[in-house]
Design brief:
mainly alpha, elongated
Protein backbone atom coordinates (compact mmCIF):
# COMPACT_ATOMS: atom_id res chain seq x y z
CA UNK A 1 0.00 0.00 0.00
CA UNK A 2 1.39 3.37 -1.03
CA UNK A 3 1.23 6.44 1.13
CA UNK A 4 2.96 8.32 3.90
CA UNK A 5 3.25 7.34 7.53
CA UNK A 6 2.03 9.79 10.14
CA UNK A 7 5.63 10.70 11.01
CA UNK A 8 6.42 11.41 7.34
CA UNK A 9 3.35 13.63 7.08
CA UNK A 10 4.31 15.44 10.29
CA UNK A 11 7.83 16.05 9.02
CA UNK A 12 6.73 17.27 5.57
CA UNK A 13 3.95 19.48 6.94
CA UNK A 14 6.16 20.72 9.79
CA UNK A 15 3.66 19.80 12.50
CA UNK A 16 3.50 17.52 15.49
CA UNK A 17 2.02 14.00 15.14
CA UNK A 18 -0.64 14.90 17.71
CA UNK A 19 -1.69 17.81 15.49
CA UNK A 20 -2.42 15.37 12.69
CA UNK A 21 -4.43 13.13 15.00
CA UNK A 22 -6.33 16.19 16.27
CA UNK A 23 -7.16 17.35 12.73
CA UNK A 24 -8.33 13.85 11.95
CA UNK A 25 -10.61 13.78 15.04
CA UNK A 26 -12.02 17.20 14.12
CA UNK A 27 -12.79 16.03 10.59
CA UNK A 28 -10.36 18.43 8.89
CA UNK A 29 -8.51 15.56 7.27
CA UNK A 30 -9.92 12.17 6.40
CA UNK A 31 -8.99 9.06 8.28
CA UNK A 32 -6.51 7.31 6.00
CA UNK A 33 -6.59 3.65 5.08
CA UNK A 34 -4.51 1.34 7.24
CA UNK A 35 -2.08 -1.39 6.38
CA UNK A 36 -2.74 -4.95 7.52
CA UNK A 37 -0.55 -4.22 10.53
CA UNK A 38 -2.67 -1.17 11.40
CA UNK A 39 -0.38 1.65 10.29
CA UNK A 40 -2.00 4.68 8.71
CA UNK A 41 -1.03 5.40 5.12
CA UNK A 42 -1.81 9.00 4.26
CA UNK A 43 -2.12 10.22 0.68
CA UNK A 44 0.45 12.87 -0.32
CA UNK A 45 -2.26 15.54 -0.64
CA UNK A 46 -2.83 15.48 3.14
CA UNK A 47 0.46 17.39 3.53
CA UNK A 48 -0.95 20.16 1.35
CA UNK A 49 -4.19 20.12 3.37
CA UNK A 50 -2.32 20.44 6.67
CA UNK A 51 -0.25 23.33 5.33
CA UNK A 52 -3.53 24.95 4.20
CA UNK A 53 -4.98 24.45 7.70
CA UNK A 54 -1.92 25.91 9.43
CA UNK A 55 -1.78 28.94 7.12
CA UNK A 56 -5.47 29.71 7.53
CA UNK A 57 -5.13 29.32 11.32
CA UNK A 58 -2.30 31.87 11.16
CA UNK A 59 -4.74 34.22 9.41
CA UNK A 60 -7.22 33.88 12.27
CA UNK A 61 -9.72 31.41 10.86
CA UNK A 62 -11.35 29.01 13.32
CA UNK A 63 -11.22 25.27 12.72
CA UNK A 64 -14.91 25.29 11.75
CA UNK A 65 -14.25 28.06 9.24
CA UNK A 66 -11.25 26.14 7.94
CA UNK A 67 -13.37 23.03 7.48
CA UNK A 68 -15.68 25.10 5.26
CA UNK A 69 -12.74 26.66 3.40
CA UNK A 70 -11.29 23.21 2.71
CA UNK A 71 -14.65 21.97 1.45
CA UNK A 72 -14.96 24.94 -0.91
CA UNK A 73 -11.38 24.56 -2.13
CA UNK A 74 -11.90 20.86 -2.90
CA UNK A 75 -15.33 21.25 -4.51
CA UNK A 76 -15.36 20.22 -8.16
CA UNK A 77 -17.70 23.16 -8.80
CA UNK A 78 -15.29 25.63 -7.17
CA UNK A 79 -16.59 29.19 -7.08
CA UNK A 80 -14.03 31.86 -6.31
CA UNK A 81 -16.83 34.08 -5.02
CA UNK A 82 -17.10 31.84 -1.97
CA UNK A 83 -13.41 32.25 -1.16
CA UNK A 84 -13.74 36.00 -1.68
CA UNK A 85 -16.70 36.05 0.72
CA UNK A 86 -14.72 34.10 3.34
CA UNK A 87 -11.81 36.54 3.05
CA UNK A 88 -13.91 39.72 3.19
CA UNK A 89 -15.94 38.40 6.11
CA UNK A 90 -12.76 37.62 8.04
CA UNK A 91 -11.35 41.06 7.21
CA UNK A 92 -14.47 42.71 8.68
CA UNK A 93 -14.16 40.56 11.79
CA UNK A 94 -10.49 41.55 12.17
CA UNK A 95 -11.31 45.23 11.66
CA UNK A 96 -13.89 45.01 14.45
CA UNK A 97 -11.33 43.35 16.74
CA UNK A 98 -8.75 46.03 15.92
CA UNK A 99 -11.30 48.74 16.73
CA UNK A 100 -12.20 47.05 20.03
CA UNK A 101 -8.53 46.59 20.94
CA UNK A 102 -7.81 50.23 20.17
CA UNK A 103 -10.66 51.29 22.47
CA UNK A 104 -9.35 49.01 25.23
CA UNK A 105 -5.84 50.42 24.83
CA UNK A 106 -7.13 53.98 24.99
CA UNK A 107 -9.08 53.22 28.17
CA UNK A 108 -6.07 51.57 29.81
CA UNK A 109 -3.81 54.46 28.81
CA UNK A 110 -6.29 56.90 30.36
CA UNK A 111 -6.49 54.86 33.57
CA UNK A 112 -2.72 54.47 33.79
CA UNK A 113 -2.34 58.21 33.34
CA UNK A 114 -4.74 58.85 36.27
CA UNK A 115 -2.86 56.43 38.51
CA UNK A 116 -0.09 58.01 40.59
CA UNK A 117 1.76 54.68 40.61
CA UNK A 118 2.53 54.51 44.32
CA UNK A 119 1.57 55.93 47.66
CA UNK A 120 -2.19 55.39 47.45
CA UNK A 121 -4.46 52.84 49.05
CA UNK A 122 -6.33 50.22 47.13
CA UNK A 123 -9.63 52.07 47.53
CA UNK A 124 -8.09 55.23 46.04
CA UNK A 125 -6.72 53.45 42.97
CA UNK A 126 -8.49 54.79 39.84
CA UNK A 127 -7.80 51.56 37.95
CA UNK A 128 -9.46 49.35 40.57
CA UNK A 129 -12.31 51.86 40.88
CA UNK A 130 -12.91 51.65 37.14
CA UNK A 131 -12.71 47.87 37.07
CA UNK A 132 -15.20 47.70 39.93
CA UNK A 133 -17.49 50.16 38.14
CA UNK A 134 -17.19 52.78 40.87
CA UNK A 135 -16.64 55.71 38.50
Amino acid sequence: MKGLTISQVAREANVNIETIRYYERRGLISEPPRTESGYRKFPQEVVKDIKFIKRTQDLGFTLEEIKSLLAVSKDQKFRSEEMHDFATSKMKEIETKIHDLHQMKTLLEDLAEKCPGSGISKRECPIIENFEGVN
